[in-house]
Write a structure and sequence with these properties.
The chain is of the alpha/beta class. It has six helices and seven strands. A seven-stranded parallel sheet has the order 3-2-1-4-5-6-7, sandwiched between helices. It starts with a strand and ends in an 8-residue tail after the last strand. Residues 10-16, 39-41, 66, 92-95, 121, 125, 148, 150, 197-198, 200-201, 203-206 line the site of NADP nicotinamide-adenine-dinucleotide phosphate (NAP). NADP nicotinamide-adenine-dinucleotide phosphate (NAP) binds next to α1 and α4.
């Protein structure tokens, strides 16, 4: 197994936490994988099982917010502490609801403030990471960058409507990824972009919407993490963005 550094951003997401645990489990008994996690909230990574790891295995970067200045500083820290070539990056941000906002059921629910907030978290923030990370990845080894989106971001697959802001933020992320892939095919052929739909996964994000999920279709974050790591390992660099679900199947854009 080759030496590698893996970066997980938005690491307090339920799926990100399972990904981190799986990366560490896969690297057990090897000192060839370094994991760097970045979040506003790192309490999960301060538990005993993480503290017992050799210090080189896990590095944490705490951010106060995801303003571009914070992202820029965090990328400088990644560049400084990465011991190996960065082979995989997971960008896990996602907002569907909070105390102030709920996904829209009808047109009258649409609010500019909610739309702006959701776009900021789901689209602008991941794009700022792509913008700031690309310079430290160019001319280096192969790197796959996974941005968590959702199947509801597919324009051609939109049969149910609703959830205007969340849907649009994920569709916009997909357009940003396909456009970025065109530019990277010219200036950073070593980077592969993946837009990933995890399927409905048990997490704070899906909690209020789980009761109508068919039996067997609500995944654990552990299941999704294993699927994703396997998908990423088998995805080849091809100068394009891929839009993949938890089975590794392509989703129409
Ligand atoms: N769960 C599902 O059923 C499902 C289905 C389809 C797609 N997805 C997508 O999968 C990804 C991970 O979802 P999850 O279920 O693991 O979500 P989660 O547990 O609710 O985690 C939320 C994530 O969003 C970030 N975040 C929350 N508020 C933010 C803000 N104001 N600014 C910037 N970042 C913010 C968090 O970053 P911090 O680490 O800094 O807190 C964390 O990475 C998301 O993109 C989601 O849209 C999930």
């Amino acid at each position: 197994m080759k030496n590698q550094t893996i970066v997980i951003i938005g690491a307090n997401s339920e799926i990100a936490k399972a990904l981190s645990l799986q990366v560490i489990a896969d690297a057990k008994n090897n000192d060839n994988t370094q994991l760097i996690v970045i979040s506003r909230e790192l309490e999960f990574y301060q538990q005993e099982s993480f503290l017992q790891l050799p210090s080189a295995c896990l590095n944490t970067i705490n951010v106060n917010s995801y303003e571009e200045s914070e992202i820029n500083l965090a990328v400088k820290k990644i560049d400084l502490i990465a011991m190996f070539e960065i082979t995989q990056i997971y960008i896990c941000h996602g907002l569907l609801h909070n105390e102030q906002l709920q996904p829209e059921k009808r047109l009258e629910d649409f609010s500019p403030e909610a739309f702006t907030k959701i776009l900021t978290v789901n689209t602008i923030t991941p794009m700022l990471w792509l913008k700031n990370l690309t310079p430290i990845l160019s001319d280096k080894g192969d790197c796959k960058i996974v941005v968590f989106t959702a199947r509801v971001g597919s324009i051609s697959d939109n049969r149910l409507g609703g959830w205007y802001s969340y849907r649009s933020s994920k569709a916009a992320m997909n357009m940003l990824l396909t456009s970025t892939a065109v530019e990277l095919a010219r200036r950073a052929k070593n980077i592969k972009l993946i837009s990933f739909h995890p399927g409905t996964t048990d997490s704070p994000l899906s909690k209020p919407f789980q009761k109508n999920v068919p039996k067997g279709k609500l995944f654990t974050s552990q299941f999704v993490a294993k699927q994703l790591l396997n998908i990423v390992e088998h995805t080849q660099l091809d100068g394009k963005a891929s839009y993949l679900d938890w089975e590794g199947k392509s989703i129409p854009w």
